[in-house]
């Protein structure tokens, strides 16, 4: 199953939002420390709400520890960065990839780039710097889940996409 890795997160509300997304989509989360805040439930409570107990979160005390765990499990690391070399929609994701987002303030260090199997970006209009990290994680994870058939229970009572257009009025 796909995983989302948060590299040294700066803002607890963004981390909580990504953990909430992961809980809803059935994705495990890896937090690569040190974070800029105390990584505890109380810091995530506002944005994660009551989803925290439904999330699968693993903390790694350093990138070296995370990298040893990742390599030991034979998983690819796909880095999501504004200067990525390939658009996320042109990349072929695998069901056991780990998608990593960087720090809100500084991205990731060079050793993380070197360890990554691929670095993808989200195509944006020229002259604009970046998206919110939680939004970027959701966009790329959505594409990875779509490609790998990883969306949980698509038959949960939601109308099919083909039928959704019938309700749109101009």
Give a brief outline of the structure.
By secondary structure, the chain is of the alpha/beta class. It has six helices and seven strands.
Poorly predicted regions? 157-170
- Output mean pLDDT: 86
Q: In terms of structural class, how would the helical and strand content be classed? A: alpha/beta
Beta-strand segment tally = 7
The biggest sheet amounts to:
7 strands, parallel
Q: How much helix, percentage-wise, in residues? A: 25-40%
Name the helix and strand elements from N-terminus to C-terminus, one letter apiece.
EHEHEHEEEHEHH
Strand content: 15-25%
Rg, Å, rounded: 16 Å
Shape: globular
Give the termini distance in whole angstroms. Answer: 40 Å
Number of helices: 6
Strand order of the largest sheet: 3-2-1-6-4-7-5
Task: Set down the secondary structure blueprint.
Blueprint: E1 3-7, H1 12-25, E2 28-32, H2 41-48, E3 57-60, H3 63-72, E4 77-80, E5 86-87, E6 98-101, H4 110-115, E7 118-121, H5 133-148, H6 161-164
Parallel strand pairs: 1-2, 1-6, 2-3, 4-6, 4-7, 5-7
Helix pairs in contact: 1-2, 1-5
Describe the structure.
The chain is an alpha/beta fold and 170 residues long. It has 6 helices and 7 strands. The protein has helices spanning 12-25, 41-48, 63-72, 110-115, 133-148, 161-164, and strands at residues 3-7, 28-32, 57-60, 77-80, 86-87, 98-101, 118-121. Strands 3-2-1-6-4-7-5 form a 7-stranded parallel beta sheet. Helix 2 links the parallel strand 2 and strand 3 (57-60). The longest helix is centred in the last third of the chain and has 16 residues, at 133-148. The relative contact order is 0.19.
């Amino acid at each position: 199953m796909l995983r989302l890795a948060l590299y040294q997160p700066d803002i607890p509300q963004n981390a909580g939002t990504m953990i909430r997304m992961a809980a809803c989509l059935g994705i495990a989360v890896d937090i690569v420390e040190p974070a800029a805040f105390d990584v505890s439930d109380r810091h995530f409570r506002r944005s994660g709400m009551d989803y925290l107990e439904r999330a699968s979160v693993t903390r790694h005390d350093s990138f070296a520890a995370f990298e040893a765990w990742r390599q030991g499990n034979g998983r690819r690391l796909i880095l999501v960065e504004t200067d990525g070399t390939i658009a996320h929609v042109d990349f072929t994701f695998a069901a056991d990839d780990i998608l990593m987002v960087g720090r809100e303030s500084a991205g990731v260090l060079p050793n993380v780039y070197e360890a990554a199997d691929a670095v993808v970006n989200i195509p944006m209009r020229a002259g604009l710097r970046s998206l919110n990290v939680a939004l970027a994680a959701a966009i790329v994870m959505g594409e990875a889940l779509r490609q790998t058939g990883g969306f949980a229970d698509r038959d949960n009572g939601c109308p099919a996409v083909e039928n959704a257009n019938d309700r749109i009025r101009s």
